[in-house]
Amino acid sequence: xxxxxxxxxxxxxxxxxxxxxxxxxxxxxxxxxxxxxxxxxxxxxxxxxxxxxxxxxxxxxxxxxxxxxxxxxxxxxxxxxxxxxxxxxxxxxxxxxxxxxxxxxxxxxxxxxxxxxxxxx
Length: 121
Fold this sequence. Notes:
Elements: H1 11-18, E1 26-30, E2 45-49, E3 59-65, E4 68-77, E5 80-84, E6 93-95, E7 103-113
Antiparallel strand pairs: 1-2, 2-7, 3-4, 3-7, 4-5, 5-6
């Protein structure tokens, strides 16, 4: 994971983007992998609300399962939590009562920001 130490926005833009959340509750992660494409592309930045440390309604989360960290869409259906990749090349899987002890939420993704770069030689 690449660490970004600071990104500055003016007060109005920050309020519009983050709804007044304290900076201490936000983390920025540079995404690797294409499992969430086209919603989140490799290299995009995601802004994560780390005050959310359990499932808090359907959405995109950063979570751990066993010893791996994931950025995936979570959707609750009766008796299980679906783990969905937006890229159709990846299969969905589920978290059930039998394996929920291996699952932990690190935060909920609020916003993604593209990092597409253009070279001008």
